[in-house]
Specification:
Blueprint lengths: L2 E2 L13 E3 L6 E3 L6 E3 L2 E6 L25 E4 L7 E2 L8 E6 L3 E3 L1 H7 L3 E4 L5 E4 L3 E6 L2 E6 L8 E8 L1 E6 L7 E6 L5 E4 L17 E4 L11 E8 L6 E10 L13 E8 L2 E7 L45 E7 L5 E7 L5 E2 L32 E8 L6 H4 L21 E6 L6 E9 L9 E3 L5 E8 L1 E5 L11 E6 L4 E10 L2 E6 L2 E7 L5 E7 L9 E8 L19 E4 L5 E4 L4 E6 L7 E6 L8 E4 L2 E3 L1 E5 L3 H4 E5 L2 E2 L2 E3 L9 E4 L6 E3 L1 E5 L6 E2 L1 E5 L2 E3 L6 E2 L4 E2 L21 H5 L8 E5 L8 E2 L7 E2 L5 E4 L2 E4 L2 E4 L3 E10 L7 E7 L2 E8 L8 E10 L4 E7 L10 E7 L1
Parallel strand pairs: 1-2, 5-6
Antiparallel strand pairs: 2-3, 4-21, 5-7, 8-20, 9-10, 10-11, 11-14, 12-13, 13-20, 14-19, 15-18, 15-20, 16-17, 16-19, 21-22, 23-24, 23-37, 25-32, 26-36, 27-28, 28-29, 28-30, 30-33, 31-32, 31-36, 33-34, 34-35, 37-53, 38-52, 39-42, 40-41, 41-51, 42-50, 43-49, 44-48, 44-52, 45-46, 45-50, 47-48, 54-55, ...
Length: 870
């Protein structure tokens, strides 16, 4: 076998040739190596000095080659190591990275002389100082920086960006930040917070998105930058994450271009250096021609024929979004492949709702999807399937849910009889909310979100292009009969409503009725997205993202309606709240809104600048959703009121307003101010953002949960393949060894009488230091539903509630009894039961714990239940 030591000098190396990659030192086989990007290395410039200790100089640009041949990143952390260059693939818009856990770095700690941590195992996000701690409580999970009198405690983030937002809990006593860019001038930022955030106390992240203010002498330009975030001696910070914005703002044209920095890739077994600046929308500026071949690779694209004009055989610009992949062909050329959503969707019912095709001209005024009776185009894939019980977190540790119990934040995870329930997942978008939601026949093994009596309803919001529901099966481990509500919708957020009508349901998508006599209920909820275009297996992927449908603001009110081509954010997440007029915010569950929550200023603002909500995001427009929106609220960008297009009849919960003229694409600090004398009520914001990640429903694993990331997430590098053996960027740049295989940990906080044990401590840390959480299992009132097939170890510790009492604990895989253990009492002592059992489970298996005698719930050391995956 021939060996080439410098393959870049011979890019046409014969297939099967063994060569040494000079950039990585790896042995590769031409034509047989997994297509991948080859990340370069950035070296640490501690305090702005190169590895020899010499200052880099004021003209040096981080990320470029220095005179010693190395590329550097700035850091103030002594002992820092080289990191992989984040400039891989394409960059555009916002990337969100959550902060959930700390891992002590021993070598850096010893060299720096103070604790140095990685955040969630990332080599490029670190925390420094003895005053950091990982928190997990009613505020959700995140990183806490305690009050200190020096600058020795800080978070340092290295990335490729031009702007940044932080996600943090806001309160009246911690309204300052200090931000430093690349070791430059310290910028004290007064956030002017007068009230504590009203988004807390729910055991979900209560962080608000806040744009970082950089000093005028060190405003970031797009490139390798290091931002350092410091606390002050008067403040205590709770931080949930960071958003890095990558946009070239040097010209109007460049604002809409993806940046593909110069990088080495292996495609078709050959090494190439590629770079480019394509428009995020390959159809930008396209006019009708006989083929799409001038803008995309037609041989590897899907859905093109739907946009062909039947009269003149020309192809017209698509407006319903889809999926875009940029890849490198065998000659080193960057190609673009797409999967386009068609002009019309298909639905469960026999319905044609104002169908359109390429002959129809007036696309700009249609915000609702149109449906047409035709053979479904196979343009979709399943993004995620949820069991309906996953929409909850144990009702924020408040116990069972009925019409009169369950606390202030009732959700379906603890539902055991009819009640109003709602829950928004961590992305701030995907939600379940219902009026009088019930459980089918109280049989949880086949339970579904069945509605009774007639007229009750529920909403599901999701982002994607379709929705499929399944009904219960006689076998709990089977999915059951499936029915597709809608498919091939314009890409963006959609609102599905199911209303009980007799024995059937009325089904609508975005206010359009798609069926009036289909089944009601939902056990599993499958969300669809555009399938990946069939690009060649030998090609390396640079970008893989969703093109949002062209933004069209809604023109009619209704909580079941939504604008076209938007990312919805419920007011329950991410929103920055401030009030300086002496009034108070009221945040509450409210099923009169699709996401199930609303935020109101009680008492009425006594001035237009006294109450404001802000949600910094990357886009061109924003839609405010809330009660009497244009009457009680005014859209603002920073401190500037905007001219809006309003709901003409605003006195409803489904009222809306949007900015009348789209803005140039960019990061804006937009939101609303209350109108003087009005108590503005908000349900959420719809962001008109140009593109979105193709991995929205891929969760981020933390020590406690699998969380949806949320945010704009326009384009990300996490899933790009960056090694010859097929590992992703996340796998090569993040150490996840700190994650355990414990999948469930829960307790009870009350004495439980004989019967099925209802665990009600599902989140946070108890007095004994035990963390409560669930992964791979859904909470279902008095049982658990397995979501991931595997072999598990069950660990059980329980004690009797009183001295001299006996206790028995039974473990079922419903309906079969698997383990039963009984402990008799001794005089004057509490009996206790402790055992472990190893069981193999299938998806859908029902786990039940029951007890004979009364279990003590006030002693956490003798009240533990956990499941570990083996």
């Amino acid at each position: 076998m021939a060996i080439h030591l410098t393959p870049e000098a011979n890019p046409t190396v014969q297939e099967g040739t063994l060569y040494v990659d000079s950039a990585t030192g790896e042995f590769n086989v031409a034509g047989r190596t997994t297509p991948h990007i080859i990340p370069e290395v950035l070296y640490p410039a501690v305090s702005g000095n190169d590895l020899s200790g010499t200052a880099l100089g004021g003209s040096y640009v981080y990320g470029t080659a220095h005179t010693d041949g190395r590329k550097y990143y700035y850091t103030d952390i002594k002992g820092s190591k080289p990191i992989k260059d984040p400039r891989i693939g394409g960059h555009f818009g916002s990337q969100r990275h959550k902060f959930k856990s700390l891992q002590l770095l021993e070598q850096e700690t010893a060299t720096h002389g103070n604790n140095v941590y990685s955040i969630d195992g990332r080599e490029w996000i670190r925390a420094v100082g003895a005053n950091f701690e990982q928190e997990y409580n009613t505020k959700g999970s995140g990183i806490k920086i305690s009050k200190v009198a020096t600058d020795t405690n800080f978070i340092e983030i290295v990335g490729y960006f031009s702007d940044a937002n932080i996600i943090r809990f806001t309160a009246a006593d911690n309204d300052h930040l200090r931000v430093v860019l690349n070791g430059g001038t310290v910028e004290p930022t007064d956030l002017e917070i007068a009230v504590d955030s009203p988004l807390s106390t729910r055991y979900v992240d209560d962080g608000s998105v806040i744009n970082l203010s950089f000093h005028s002498s060190s405003t970031p330009v797009l490139g390798i930058n290091t931002v350092k975030i410091l606390n002050t001696n008067a403040d205590e910070y709770h931080i949930n994450g960071i958003e890095l914005i990558a946009q070239d703002t040097t010209s109007t044209a460049n604002r809409s271009k993806i940046q593909i920095p110069s990088q080495d890739v292996v495609s078709y077994g050959k090494k190439f250096n590629v770079s480019g600046t394509p428009h995020y929308n390959p159809f930008n500026g396209y006019t009708a021609t006989s083929s799409f071949s001038s803008v995309v690779d037609v041989d590897t694209s899907l859905g093109l024929e739907a946009w062909k004009h039947t009269a003149d055989n020309n192809y017209y610009p698509p407006v319903n979004g889809g999926r875009i992949v940029n890849w490198v062909d065998s000659s080193g050329t960057i190609k673009t492949s797409v999967t386009l959503m068609p002009p019309n969707a298909t639905g469960i019912g026999s319905i044609s709702s104002n169908p359109r095709d390429a002959n129809y001209g007036s696309w700009s005024s249609q915000y609702q999807p149109t449906f047409k009776n035709e053979t479904e185009r196979q343009l979709h894939e399943v993004a995620k399937t949820f069991h309906w019980r996953e929409f909850g977190n144990g009702s924020a540790n408040e116990g069972k849910v009925s019409s009169i119990t369950g606390g202030s934040f009732k959700d379906v995870s603890m539902l055991e009889s009819t009640a109003d329930v709602s829950f928004v997942m961590d992305d701030g978008l995907t939600s379940f909310s219902g009026d009088d939601v019930n459980v089918s026949g109280y049989d949880y093994a086949v339970g579904s979100a069945t509605l009774t009596p007639s007229g009750d309803l529920f909403y599901i919001t999701f982002i994607g292009t379709g929705l499929t529901l399944s009904l219960p099966s006689s076998n709990a481990t089977e999915i059951g009969t499936q029915y597709t509500i809608a498919q091939n919708l314009p890409y963006g957020t959609h609102v599905y409503k199911q209303e009980r009508s007799g024995s059937n349901g009325i089904h609508t998508i975005d206010g359009v009725v798609v069926a009036t006599s289909a089944p009601n209920g939902a056990k599993y909820i499958a969300i669809h997205q555009p399938k990946k275009p069939p690009i060649p297996e030998d090609a390396v992927v640079l970008c893989d993202y969703m093109l949002m449908a062209d933004f069209v603001p809604q023109t009619s009110k209704g909580i079941d309606k939504i604008s076209k081509g938007v990312r919805r954010c419920s007011v329950s997440r991410d929103v920055f709240c401030n009030e300086t007029g002496g009034d108070a915010f009221s945040f509450a569950q409210d099923v009169n809104y699709a996401s199930g929550f609303r935020l109101r200023l009680d008492g009425g603002a006594d001035g237009v600048d006294k109450m404001k909500l802000r949600i910094p995001s990357f886009g061109t427009n924003i839609v405010h959703i809330g009660y009497a929106s244009p009457t009680r609220s005014q859209i603002y960008i920073d401190s500037s009121p905007q001219t809006t297009t309003d709901d003409p009849d605003s006195n409803s919960n489904g009222s809306y307003q949007s900015i009348a003229t789209n803005k140039d694409l960019g990061l804006y600090n937009w939101g609303i101010n209350a109108v003087t004398g009005q108590n503005g009520a908000t349900a959420g914001f719809d962001i008109a953002t140009p593109i979105h990640t193709s991995h929205h429903y891929q969760s981020f694993e933390t020590p406690y949960l699998h969380e949806l990331v949320g945010g704009d997430r326009n384009m990300e590098q996490t899933n790009l393949v960056c090694s010859p053996d097929g590992r992703s960027w996340d796998q090569i740049s993040r150490d996840t060894s700190f994650l355990s295989q414990v999948k469930v940990s829960c307790q009870i906080d009350h004495d439980s009488s004989a019967g099925n044990i209802v665990f009600d401590e599902w989140r946070g840390q108890n007095d004994a230091g035990l963390n409560a959480f669930n992964k791979s299992f859904a909470i279902a009132y008095d049982r658990l539903i397995c979501l991931e097939e595997g072999t598990y170890q069950f660990n059980v510790i329980f004690s009797a509630s009183t001295d001299g009492a006996s206790i028995g604990i039974n473990l079922y895989i419903d309906p079969d009894l698997v383990v039963s253990q009984y402990a008799d009492h001794e005089s004057g002592e509490k009996s206790s039961v402790a055992y472990s059992a190893v069981l193999t489970l299938k998806k859908g298996d029902i786990i039940i714990m029951s007890n004979a005698g009364t279990v003590e719930g006030t002693n956490p050391e003798k009240n533990q239940f956990s499941i570990v995956k083996l």
